[in-house]
Amino acid sequence: MAKRKKTNTSVPTQKIQGYIEGAGEVVEEKIVSTLEENFMPYAMSIILSRAIPEIDGFKPSHRKLLYTMYKMGLLGTTRTKSANIVGQTMKLNPHGDAAIYDTMVRLSRGYEALLHPFVDSKGNFGKFYSRDMAWAASRYTEAKLDPICNELFRDIDKDTVDFADNYDNTMKEPTLLPAAFPSVLVNANTGIAVGMASSICSFNLAEVCHTTIGLLRDPDFDIMSTLVAPDFSGGAQIIYDEQTMRTVYETGRGSIRLRARYVYDKFANCIDVLSIPQTTTSEAIIEKITELSKQGKLKDISDVRDETGIDGLKITIDLKRGVNPDKLMAKLYKMTTLEDSFACNFNVLTEGTPKVLGVREILNEWSSFRIECVRRRTNFDYRKKQDRLHLLRGLEKILLDIDKAIQIIRNTEEEAMVVPNLMEGFGIDEIQAEYVAEIKLRHLNREYILKRTKDISELEKEISELESILNSKTKIKNIIIRELSEIAEKYGQPRRSMIIRADDIDDDETAEEVPDYPVHLFFTKEGYFKKITPLSLRMSGEHKLKEGDEITEHIETTNNTDMIFFSDMAKAYKAKGSDFGDTKTSVLGDYIPTKLSFDEGENAIYMISTKDYKGYVFFVFESGKVAKVALEAYATKTNRKKLTGAYSEKERLAAICYAPDDESEIVLISSSGRALIFKAGDLLTKSTRSTQGVAVMKQRKGHRVISARIFTDGVISDPERYRAKVLPSAGQLPKSSEAEQMTF
Hints:
Layout: E1 2-4, E2 27-29, H1 31-51, H2 60-71, E3 80-81, H3 82-89, H4 97-107, E4 119-122, E5 142-145, H5 149-152, E6 163-165, E7 172-174, H6 183-186, E8 189-192, E9 197-200, H7 205-217, E10 237-240, H8 242-251, E11 253-259, E12 261-265, E13 270-275, H9 282-294, E14 301-306, E15 315-319, H10 325-335, E16 339-345, E17 347-350, E18 353-356, H11 359-399, H12 402-411, H13 418-426, H14 430-437, H15 446-453, H16 456-470, H17 473-491, E19 498-501, H18 507-510, E20 518-524, E21 528-532, H19 534-539, E22 551-558, E23 562-567, E24 571-576, E25 590-591, H20 592-595, E26 604-610, E27 616-621, E28 625-630, E29 642-644, E30 653-659, E31 665-670, E32 675-679, E33 694-695, E34 705-710
Parallel strand pairs: 10-19
Antiparallel strand pairs: 1-2, 3-5, 4-5, 6-7, 8-9, 10-11, 11-16, 12-13, 13-15, 14-15, 17-18, 20-21, 20-22, 21-25, 23-24, 23-26, 24-29, 27-28, 27-30, 28-33, 31-32, 31-34
Helix pairs in contact: 2-3, 7-17, 11-14, 11-15, 11-16, 11-17, 12-13, 13-14
């Protein structure tokens, strides 16, 4: 329950001006009711009115800004101060001038975030690829609508879309824009709401138009034949994988790999990066390269700097003599955001409901929306021409006797009776009579009337054509197809993002060249690690250890092995053998929590070395439960070094064991002195790392599992005695002769 308390007062109500009855009372409210009444309306407002774009491709903030500029007459040659536009927009969007100006900046040509900007800007509008390049204040910049906005507002005054009152009911604003092309896919759009988000990548305008035309003609049209891949305003290269792209197109979710485009200047011995992924900035890339150089991981670079200028983005990387630029870039792609991923989440509002749609579904939704816009526009023209025809037919009847019309008007004593008398005299209705009565005296001649009435036959043909359009969905589709073809021809531009096939990239070339040779890995109880070559180990003496420390693991492998270190906080930290230097037994070694940047108070408790991620990890808990997790659950496609939720935190961990296969056996020891041996294959592999496992060793009250290890010959002289017939089992007490063997 939530309580709301107000300051109490006992002063009589009649003596206090503005007294509120009930003030000072403690009111109990249910948390559920508070959330439903207060938070849910807020969440719905964020989803429906701010963060998620609608099928026309715009969020409300975008739509309000563009419509304000349209009403200001900025769809022409004249620019005005951005501050003026921001002020006018506040009549529709009262969220502050800074938010409105930020919206204008993102839609502007100068910011370069969109393939087809909607705002033609003048002045400093910053750059999307720069984190530090701030745009000028609105009082210094100017703007107008870009010519492509003609297609956004086409026929908006012909009842193509619904209008609603603004926040104070003083103006009308469109609920959607009658966009004549699928702008929802042409320009990138991202937003974070409450409990959901939207991230729509941009596609080439001409490709989107041709794809939509194909779908309008054939619902089963193969969209990937014309819409090959997204197209980003920043250019870069798209690493194309057909299956991944098909998943994005079909589900609206997925990740698209992007990498920077570069050229090598052999005379200056430098690499010029000319375009970068949409998801990063030039500053972030330069900072990362600088950091890696200071750490000694990039020894082939002498300098890196930002040379962005009037010609656009340019990051220059100076190379040392003899460096292969392609191999260096392959390494940089791995280690920096010069290669990054764009996460797609095509969440769109359709009829007031947020839905994650595939590309085909989005285009079908837009087509339905556009068909309705064209139908409403046609109906608007039809009604206007019908009204015009009706007036001209009345005027045509006047042609029969102009003198009679003049005489009726002249002989009518009261002005109010002119229209009724004309209606009676010529057999026309009130609307036609009003039209005739408003004609100036100078126009009551045969020439004027003939000029007006000769359009009757043309109007009848136009009305007949409009009727046929209204009665035929195919004709409406043909109109949309014609408009899309014209837009593609007029505004289409070449692709900016190059497409390279994932199969054409040799992953072996992108891997850092690391020497591989035999090594011995040692891990101690206190979390120290040593990597020693066989030769050094043979020539060395005893291991140097901290007082009370001991070696718990000794693994023979090679330098190119992957290592996983488990901590006592249910986390796993990944490293490679090559990340550690070769050492000797006479040193303490690397302290893993420091080397791998563990959290404060976190300790390393177990190490696994692997090259193929085969085998199983067994997490033994003090309660007697054991969780069997496939080692491949810790394999990652990215360079992540830290994995949370490595094992369950709901139970106290007693030990961790690695078994290479199901034939391995594991020995558990309880504080009661009992021992139990079970085969790895007796347990089912769990699909999640954080599983609590299953009961294996029953524990009496007050006792717990204290240790576990992989069973090897010689550990127990009579292993058959301790092998479990069924699980869970309480295990067996050791014989007096074996008790000393079970102190591990």
